[in-house]
């Protein structure tokens, strides 16, 4: 007797993220943006009402997007469509699952709905991606069921410095764990606030058990290639594309840069003449309460 | 030691490499036409087919790959890789105007089983394997033969999921997302790249 078909398994959830590796996931706010992203070679789009830089400048409570707006994007493109729910807002997540969204981003870019708890992502057949600023946070999210991790960076700033900080923190801790004696793992798990079995997994395998992308502040092909050379699996680009002078050209250049991230000659060629990059923000001028990366725990 | 290429522009590249290494192959990652020269077979991994098509064109790999496929070079495409190999590409929900290598007499129906919430795992029987294989289907295409030259090696209830046309192998599932090397071995042994174990 053959095994019956099983949907929404861990392999299927994690597997889609594995197929996105080496790719660029682009924030889009209209079906037209989504089409531009798909034509430029995006591996997926993130459907949202406002890109992070607008959320930042307009303020107010940022929530899940209108289902109608998401549906318009699903109808426009055949690449996977992701959407964001607020941290801890499991009903927004239920709605997104009912709409057959391909991936949910439980995102600090939206205003958190729960100050203590994240969504129990094991309850869902749709996979989740979550942000992390360090290894402990990444492992807590994976333990809750996240099938993909990304750096938080500082969304909507066009400044890659925070994404680099988070990537180095996560990857640096992984490198250290790899050579840590087994008897020290429990203490490390306690200090990180991460489950012992996942700490042990990282020690044994030298990587997270899920795909790990860069996000937050990536604005140029060089930024994207930097994140890839640091050791991440792919990149999210938010405001960096559609807040720039020539979105089509920049989107394509970032896709190309990620596919050939270790060839400086190629990167020099594709970085030429892309028009204005988005105007950036210096993180040191951002007051703490305006930093999105501080949301989530 | 045989050297097998894995197209490394986007997608599940590392997973194929790890299976090929377990089988004792040397592996070359392929990003440029020059890198195609010293390999005896190539794997086109899963990923996003629209992205892969555009990158194959951008890095000038489309034409050499078509020439190699027509000359009988062994090529195995998994999921999006199988879509690249197919002569016709279709989709249920959207109009698709894709075309790529177009080497196999196969019509690939993209996302046949639905969106990600319908991605699934199912145990499948495969011609040439004694025991069933764990098929991981992620937004998978259905692969419909367009001529009698195409041999169906495995099917699910909905239709064919593993096909061979001479040197071309197409799977709609991801053998690289398991730790099971048997389908890669089948492909490599069939073309004399690995010696049969029996």
What does this structure look like?
- The complex is a heterodimer of chains A (297) and B (198).
- Chain A is α/β, with parallel strands linked by helices and 297 residues long.
- Chain A is 42% helix and 12% strand.
- Chain A has 13 helices and 9 strands.
- In chain A, strands 8-7-6-5-4-3-2-9 form an 8-stranded parallel beta sheet, sandwiched between helices.
- In chain A, α5 (90-98) links the parallel β4 and β5.
- The termini of chain A are far apart.
- The model of chain A has no long low-confidence stretch (mean pLDDT 94).
- Chain B has a 7-stranded mixed beta sheet with strand order 2-1-3-4-12-11-10. A 3-stranded mixed beta sheet of chain B has the order 5-6-9.
- Chain B starts with a strand and ends in an 8-residue tail after the last helix.
- At the A-B interface, β1, α1 and α12 of A face α1, α2 and β7 of B.
Secondary structure layout:
The complex is a heterodimer of chains A (297) and B (198).
Chain A: E1 6-7, H1 10-20, E2 24-28, H2 31-40, E3 44-47, H3 52-58, H4 67-76, E4 81-86, H5 90-98, E5 103-107, E6 128-132, H6 135-143, E7 148-151, H7 161-178, H8 185-192, H9 196-205, E8 211-213, H10 221-230, E9 235-237, H11 239-242, H12 247-259, H13 264-270
Parallel strand pairs in A: 2-3, 2-9, 3-4, 4-5, 5-6, 6-7, 7-8
Helix pairs in contact in A: 2-4, 2-12, 7-9, 8-9, 10-12
Chain B: E1 3-7, H1 13-22, E2 26-30, E3 41-44, H2 49-58, H3 62-70, E4 75-78, H4 80-85, E5 86-91, E6 104-110, E7 120-124, E8 133-137, E9 142-145, E10 151-156, E11 159-165, E12 168-171, H5 182-190
Parallel strand pairs in B: 1-2, 1-3, 3-4, 4-12, 5-6
Antiparallel strand pairs in B: 6-9, 7-8, 10-11, 11-12
């Amino acid at each position: 007797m053959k095994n019956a078909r099983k949907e929404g398994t861990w392999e299927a959830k994690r597997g889609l993220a594995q197929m996105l590796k080496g790719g660029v996931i682009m924030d889009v706010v209209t079906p037209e943006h989504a089409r531009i992203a798909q034509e430029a070679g995006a591996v997926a789009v993130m459907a949202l009402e406002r890109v992070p830089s607008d959320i930042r400048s307009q303020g107010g409570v940022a929530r899940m997007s209108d289902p109608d707006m998401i549906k318009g994007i699903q109808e426009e493109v055949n690449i996977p469509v992701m959407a964001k729910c607020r941290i801890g807002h499991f009903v927004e997540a239920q709605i997104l699952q009912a709409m057959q969204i391909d991936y949910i981003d439980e995102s600090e870019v939206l205003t958190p709905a729960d100050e203590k708890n994240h969504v129990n992502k094991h309850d869902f057949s749709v996979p989740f991606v979550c942000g992390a600023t360090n290894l402990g946070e990444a492992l807590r999210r994976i333990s809750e069921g996240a099938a993909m991790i990304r750096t938080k960076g500082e969304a909507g700033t066009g400044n890659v410095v925070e994404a680099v900080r988070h990537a180095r923190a996560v990857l640096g801790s992984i490198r250290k764990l790899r050579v840590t004696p087994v008897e020290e793992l429990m203490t490390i798990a306690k200090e990180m606030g991460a489950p012992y079995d996942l700490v042990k997994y990282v020690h044994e395998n030298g990587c997270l058990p899920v795909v790990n992308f860069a996000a937050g502040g990536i604005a140029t092909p060089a930024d994207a290639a930097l994140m890839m050379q640091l050791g991440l699996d792919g990149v999210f680009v938010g405001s960096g594309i559609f807040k720039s002078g020539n979105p089509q050209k920049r989107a394509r250049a970032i896709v190309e840069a990620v596919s050939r991230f270790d060839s400086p000659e190629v990167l020099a060629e594709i970085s030429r003449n892309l028009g204005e990059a988005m105007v950036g923000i210096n993180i040191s001028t951002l007051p703490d309460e305006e930093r999105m990366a501080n949301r989530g725990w | 030691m045989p050297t097998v290429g894995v197209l490394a522009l986007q997608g599940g590249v590392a997973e194929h490499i790890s299976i090929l290494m377990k089988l004792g192959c040397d592996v070359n990652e392929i990003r440029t036409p020059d890198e195609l020269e010293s390999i005896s077979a190539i794997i086109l991994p899963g990923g996003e087919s629209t992205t892969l098509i555009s990158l194959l064109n951008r890095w000038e790999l489309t034409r050499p790959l078509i020439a190699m496929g027509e000359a009988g070079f062994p090529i195995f495409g998994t999921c999006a890789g199988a879509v690249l190999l197919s002569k016709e590409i279709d989709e249920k929900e959207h109009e698709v105007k894709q075309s790529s290598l177009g080497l196999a007499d196969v019509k690939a129906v993209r996302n046949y089983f639905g969106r990600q919430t319908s991605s699934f795992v199912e145990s499948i029987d495969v011609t040439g394997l004694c025991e069933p294989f764990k098929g991981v289907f992620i937004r998978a295409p259905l692969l419909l033969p367009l001529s009698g030259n195409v041999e169906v090696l495995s099917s699910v209830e909905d239709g064919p999921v593993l096909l061979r046309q001479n040197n071309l192998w197409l799977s709609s599932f991801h053998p690289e997302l398991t730790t099971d090397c048997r389908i890669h071995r089948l492909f490599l042994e069939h073309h004399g790249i690995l010696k049969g174990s029996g």
